[in-house]
Amino acid sequence: MPELTKFSYIGVLVFILFGTVWLEIVLQARVLRKIKRLILTLIPVVTLYVIWDYYAIINDHWFFDPTKTTGVILIGFLPIEELLFFIVVPIAALLSFEAVRSIKQEKAGDEK
């Protein structure tokens, strides 16, 4: 069982994704269908959080437990799980927001 603990972070991300991706299909959230809009939304978020993580890691504000991550490191310091977190969580938030908007039949700022 100890080998499975290195997938703990990935497991949480999969749970988050499966917990919200159905909103795209069932409630017509239209997040994943508008890929250009999604990418333009994610670029500043991912960039900001990668910079924030870099600062926090080099200043020993936090670290990543190697027993809970796969060991795949990007850019010399960032576990792949952390980068995926910066992508999956905003997508889950957008799916949730758009699903509520779909139910309430409200328009967003770019659709008014």
From TrEMBL:
Topology with respect to the bilayer: Multi-pass membrane protein
TM ranges: 6-26, 38-58, 70-97
Keyword Oxidoreductase included in the entry's annotation: no
A cellular-component GO term for this protein: membrane
Any one GO MF annotation of this record: intramolecular lyase activity
Pathway it works in: Carotenoid biosynthesis
One BP annotation, GO: carotene biosynthetic process
InterPro entries named in the record: Lycopene_cyclase_dom
Keyword Translocase tagged: no
UniProt entry keywords in alphabetical sequence: Carotenoid biosynthesis, Isomerase, Membrane, Transmembrane, Transmembrane helix
Subcellular locations according to the entry: Membrane
Name this protein carries in UniProt: Unannotated protein
